[in-house]
User: Which sequence fits this backbone?
């Protein structure tokens, strides 16, 4: 008997209503994510992928359709099931790296000694041992994002949602962070939904790629990525996949560009 | 629109409550709005204080002279201390430290030196208005991007050109804010000076009315003073807007 | 044009130059009086001021205590009200929209226009000084706190919410620490404003305290004593601000 999906999105729709107009952000999105699957959502700017992720995370309510997380209808942020990482690390500047990682545990009332232990344990695999007592302003962009990811991992939730987490980093750091993330995923076996607009990242990281249209966002295509790890990004299969993805996404990107996004 | 309505409603509520409550107490002491309005009419018609225009004019002149001095000395000292290397670093903390002293402590010394006449009010207004101006100049100079100067010099600009075409435009925003703050403080300084001890001027009149317990007229004069303050700040705001647009 | 750009001088050199300049000024001032360039009736020599300082010392200390007491009472009230209301108005959008213009307008108003009325209502004693001092100190504190709360990076709140923080937790663990720098700035400014208010009341109403001492010495043409008293109040104020500054630095290590 196959596993029940961790995430089910059914006929999701979302509109943004301002004083002058109503803009449809998402229309008729249906999606399932299997447990321990690494899914990438790929799409042009403004297609609503961040909105989709926020709805799955319970931060925004949908206008139509529903989201079920581990079988239950999503009614708000549930840190026991879903942890989120954003493009901006969003570290609390008045807390040290260690204290930032402890934040989620603090919210749940975990006692101090235990919190400290867990947080310290999480900063080591992200390569930040020795930086526990540094403040965010003393950390580089890549380090900040690693702290943010450690903070999310501290929640020990089965599902991890990541909204372009490496978007603000330079190319070399991005590649290294991608490799490192794969290592974490292999070890923790979480269900990951990863949003990006980078074809490279999508091919490198995911087991399945879902392509979205430009606004209003719909699911255009889905690609299984059966390449063995570690991925050879220059090999024939990766190149073919890249071409296929670009074929799907090019028109959408062009449309997004032309509509002034 | 709803917000404006709520604000107006709040204002009317406060005035109404005050009127009701003051009406039941001693009206002389609690000055209900219903007493202030006729007093205001009397004051504006110059029936209560026929010499009001002269007093008003004196206050205005004091403000203008004090502000002219504050701007002149403030800008002069600011650029003198701010442009040469290191000088600003030495003296800005001293000025900032002086700013931490409540300005009114200087007033008795000023009254000793200048007497009760307009001179002490001008001196006090100058003192209050001077600090924001000079600090704005120092901050403005300090925050100019060194890179801009490097570029200008590489393009062959001399000292004078650098000053006029790079430093001044870069600090316009800070400078205008400082000039505006200086004016507001100068006005307050002159009024405080007049209320604390004077022989003429709007503040003196307010003190006079209070001394004779003509409280409604005192309230009316206070409103006149408020209007003056707002009018001056309004003019300053317009000037600032105009100057910002012109400076680009 | 070397003054442009960030600071480069060493702290020690700077201190030396500052002390040297002040010392030079005092020396010139002393010389000017001794040589008869200025009238000692209006501008007393620094040595005369020093002597006067010793002479009025005990009495001035008592009056300083009076003023300080009233200032601290006014300060406690302004901080309590200012921070409290500032946090509430800053967080509740509708309240902010309605009340902010009033706050800004009242802040810009010269409060001294209300002073005669306050004296009428509260008489001549400690009460009007505390009331007026509170009035003076409340508005800058409240406005700074409102600004600080509204300036909190909204992304931090999103992060907290995504981790399941309740409204109370967001308030306590995110908004307050993020707004703390603004609150500290308000505390520093509020102290100066409260002291200013108390001094003005003492001067205007002839109420016992340093303000009264200053105006009394001025009226009696006792210039040396006046300068000495002015110096005392200035030292008090600078000292209080330095204390608050060091508190600010201790709490702002993360910046």
Assistant:
């Amino acid at each position: 008997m196959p596993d029940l999906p961790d995430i089910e999105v059914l006929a999701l729709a979302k509109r943004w209503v301002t004083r002058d107009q109503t803009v449809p952000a998402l229309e008729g999105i249906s999606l399932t994510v299997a447990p321990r699957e690494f899914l990438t959502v790929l799409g042009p700017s403004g297609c609503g992928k961040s909105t989709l992720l926020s709805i799955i995370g319970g931060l925004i309510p949908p206008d139509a359709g529903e989201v079920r997380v581990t079988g239950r209808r999503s009614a708000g942020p549930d840190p026991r099931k879903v942890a989120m990482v954003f493009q901006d690390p969003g570290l609390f500047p008045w807390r040290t790296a260690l204290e930032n990682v402890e934040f989620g545990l603090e919210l749940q009332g975990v006692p101090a000694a235990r919190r400290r232990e867990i947080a310290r344990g999480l900063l080591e695999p992200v390569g930040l041992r020795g930086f526990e007592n540094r403040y965010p302003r003393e950390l580089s962009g890549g380090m900040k994002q690693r702290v943010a990811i450690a903070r999310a991992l501290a929640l020990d939730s089965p599902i991890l949602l990541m909204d372009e987490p490496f978007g603000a980093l330079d190319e070399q750091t991005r590649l290294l962070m991608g490799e490192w993330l794969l290592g974490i995923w292999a070890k923790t076996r979480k269900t990951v939904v990863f949003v990006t607009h980078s074809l490279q990242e999508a091919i490198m990281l995911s087991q399945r790629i879902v392509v979205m249209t430009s606004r209003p966002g719909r699911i255009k295509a889905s690609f299984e990525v059966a390449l063995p790890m570690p991925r050879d990004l220059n090999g024939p299969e990766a190149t073919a996949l890249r071409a296929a993805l670009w074929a799907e996404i090019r028109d959408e990107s062009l449309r997004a560009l032309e509509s002034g996004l | 629109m709803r917000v404006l309505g709520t604000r107006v409603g709040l204002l009317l509520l406060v005035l109404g409550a005050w009127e009701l409550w003051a009406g039941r107490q001693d009206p002389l002491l609690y000055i209900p709005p219903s007493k202030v309005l006729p007093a205001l009419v009397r004051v504006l018609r110059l029936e209560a204080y026929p010499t009001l225009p002269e007093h008003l004019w004196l206050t205005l002149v004091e403000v203008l002279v004090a502000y002219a001095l504050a701007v002149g000395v403030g800008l002069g000292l600011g650029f003198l201390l701010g442009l040469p290397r290191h000088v600003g670093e030495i003296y800005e903390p001293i000025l900032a430290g002086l700013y931490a002293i409540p300005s009114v402590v200087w007033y008795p010394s000023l009254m000793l030196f200048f007497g009760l006449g307009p001179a002490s009010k001008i001196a006090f207004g100058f003192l209050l208005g001077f600090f924001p101006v000079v600090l704005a100049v120092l901050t403005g100079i300090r925050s100019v991007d060194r890179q801009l100067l490097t570029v200008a010099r590489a393009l062959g600009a001399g000292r004078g050109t650098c000053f006029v075409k790079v430093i001044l435009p870069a600090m316009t925003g800070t400078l205008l804010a400082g000039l505006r703050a200086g004016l507001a403080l100068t006005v307050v300084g002159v009024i405080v000076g007049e209320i604390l001890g004077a022989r003429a001027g709007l503040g003196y009149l307010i003190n006079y009315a209070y001394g004779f317990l003509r409280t409604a007229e005192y309230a009316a004069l206070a409103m006149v003073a408020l209007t003056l303050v707002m009018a001056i700040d309004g003019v300053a705001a317009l000037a600032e807007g105009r100057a910002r647009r012109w400076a680009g | 044009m070397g003054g442009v750009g960030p600071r480069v001088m060493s702290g020690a050199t700077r201190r030396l130059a500052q002390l040297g300049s002040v010392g030079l000024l005092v020396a010139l001032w002393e010389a000017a009086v001794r040589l008869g360039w200025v009238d000692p009736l209006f501008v007393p020599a620094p040595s005369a001021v020093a002597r006067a300082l010793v002479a009025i010392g005990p009495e001035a200390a008592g009056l300083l205590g009076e003023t300080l007491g009233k200032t601290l009472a006014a300060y406690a009230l302004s901080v309590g009200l200012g921070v409290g209301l500032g946090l509430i108005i800053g967080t509740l959008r509708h309240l902010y929209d309605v009340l902010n213009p009033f706050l800004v307008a009242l802040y810009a108003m010269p409060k001294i226009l209300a002073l005669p009325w306050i004296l009428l209502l509260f008489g001549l004693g400690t009460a009007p000084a505390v009331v007026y001092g509170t009035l003076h100190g409340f508005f800058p504190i409240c406005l700074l706190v409102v600004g600080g709360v509204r300036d909190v990076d909204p992304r931090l709140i999103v992060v907290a919410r995504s981790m399941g923080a309740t409204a109370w937790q967001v308030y306590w663990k995110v908004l307050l620490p993020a707004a703390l720098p603004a609150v500290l700035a308000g505390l520093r400014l509020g102290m100066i404003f409260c002291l200013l208010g108390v001094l003005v009341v003492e001067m205007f109403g002839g109420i016992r305290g340093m303000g009264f001492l200053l105006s009394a010495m001025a009226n009696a043409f006792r210039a040396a004593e006046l300068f000495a008293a002015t110096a005392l109040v200035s030292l008090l104020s600078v000292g209080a601000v330095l204390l608050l500054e060091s508190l600010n630095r201790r709490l702002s290590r993360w910046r």
About this structure: The two ends of chain B are 33 Å apart (CA to CA). Chains B and A do not touch (no CB pair under 8 Å).
